[in-house]
Amino acid sequence: MKKIYDLDLPTMPENGVPSNTVIAIDGPAGSGKSTLAKQLADTFKLLYVDTGAMYRALTWAAIQNKVDFSNEDALAQLLAQSDLTLDSGVKSIVVRWDSKDISSEIRSSDIEANVSEVASHAIVRKEMVAIQRNISRSTGVVMEGRDIGSVVFPLADVKIYLDASVETRAIRRHKQLSKNDSSCTVQNVQADIIRRDKLDTERKESPLTISPDAMIFDNSNLSISEQLKEITSIVLFVIERSLPKLPEKQLPIATQTLKYKFAVGGMNTLLRFMGGK
Ligand code: DC
After folding, report:
1. Is pLDDT above 50 for 103?
2. What's the mean pLDDT in 106-122?
3. Is the pLDDT of residue 146 over 80?
4. What pLDDT shows up at residue 277?
5. What is the distance in A from the centroid of ligand 1 to the CA of 169?
6. How far, in Å, CA of 214 to CA of 162, rounded?
7. What does the pLDDT look like over 18-67, one tens digit per residue?
8. Is the pLDDT of residue 6 over 50?
9. Mutate to test the pocket of ligand 1, among 26, 50, 51 (most ligand atoms within 8 A of CB)
10. Distance 20 CA to ligand 1 centre (A)
11. Are 235 and 44 in contact (CB under 8 A)?
12. How far, CA to CA in Å, does 122 sit from each of 65, 201, 264?
């Protein structure tokens, strides 16, 4: 008789997570998603995917090709005809458009000002989501963005919604942006963050929302290392609790969802308790 555990179980390193684990991280601009996502990917040996960089790359290409930001068909065509790649570099990811390294260009204030409009189009998002899902076919991922838990991976193993006060986020973003642009001020950056939050949360297509089964985490008063420590143990806790006795795919979806909701409900209560709320 064939033993059930001989079926395709993912590899599971000691004190780690299965190699096909999907961790979705969503949250507004400047909430620290990239830092956290990179650290978690490193810790759990998963692939880090920055989906904001993909929308930024398309915005860069639109500028180069003089494509109007409101022309969704032309934008989608530009994306379909391109070779967009993200590679893990030593400290950050390397973004290439048709082999050209555009990693620093996509962080400029010009891109910052227009990327929300580019990301608001349904056809563009459809193509991006297809690319993002495709990446996870061959590997586990830590993917960060605005719609990862809600649209890209509604059945992600762990969903985190990362947040921080708008003042904290503005100070963080200003620190990054002022490296390339000495004229930017915290006030300007804060005004731009408020404008982008509004566009990202109020747009029709896949707006930034908190999935009901996401763990909400406010890191305004936490250091990066404190955050990593807390979230690493939360991820391990959730994964261990939801690890199936049978391969996950054999469990009815309702059972998976129930188990996950139970773990997330408990974690959100714990987080509120730790945050004194
Ligand atoms: O995270 P970021 O600042 O690099 O994102 C750039 C823009 O892309 C941001 O305005 C929202 C948009 N975005 C999105 O709509 N969906 C995603 N999954 C990721 C980013």
Report:
1. yes
2. 92
3. yes
4. 46
5. 15
6. 10
7. 989 999 999 999 999 999 999 999 999 999 999 999 999 999 999 999 99
8. no
9. 51
10. 24
11. yes
12. 21, 15, 30
Pocket of ligand 1 (CB under 6 A): 29, 51-52, 55-56, 115-116, 119, 145-147, 196, 200
Environment class of residue 37 by beta-carbon count within 10 Å: exposed (0-12), middle (13-18) or buried (19+)? Answer: buried
Tell me the C-alpha distance between 225 and 194, whole Å.
27
d(CA 275, CA 277): 5
Pairing mode, strands 100-101 and 93-97: antiparallel
The token pair that represents 144 in the structure block: 């960060």
Mean predicted confidence (pLDDT) in 218-241: 91
With cut-offs at 50, 70 and 90, classify the pLDDT of residue 140: very high
Q: Contact at 8 Å (CB) between 119 and 178?
A: no
Q: Helix crossing, 224-242 with 253-274: angle to 10°?
A: 150
Cβ neighbours of residue 6 closer than 8 Å, sequence gap 6 or more: none
Residue located via tokens 């773990």: 263
Closest C-alpha to ligand 1, atom 5: 52
